[in-house]
Amino acid sequence: MKVAIAGAGIGGLCAALMLHARGIEVEIWESAAEIRPLGSGLMLMPQAVHELMELGLGNQLATLGVDIAAMCYFNRYGQQIWRDPRGHAAAANAPQYAINRGLLQVLLHNVTTDRLGAQAVHCGKAFESFEPEERGVLVRLRDPRTRTLTESRVDVLIGADGIFSAVRSFMYPIKDELRFSGRMIWRALAESEPLLDGRSAFMAGTRRQKFSCFPVSGSLHTRGRALLSWVAELQTGGAVPPKAEWNRRVDKALILRAFADWKWDWLDVPGLIESSREILEFPIVDRDPLPRWSFGPVTLLGDAAHPIYPTGHAGAAQAILDARYLADCLQSCSDPCEALREYEAERIQDTTALLLRHRMNGPEQVLQLAEARAPDGFNGSVQGIEEAELRRATQRFKEVAGINPERHMPN
Ligand SMILES: Cc1cc2nc3c(=O)[nH]c(=O)nc-3n(C[C@H](O)[C@H](O)[C@H](O)COP(=O)(O)OP(=O)(O)OC[C@H]3O[C@@H](n4cnc5c(N)ncnc54)[C@H](O)[C@@H]3O)c2cc1C
Question: Which atom of ligand 1 is found nearest the CA of 163?
Answer without folding.
Answer: 30
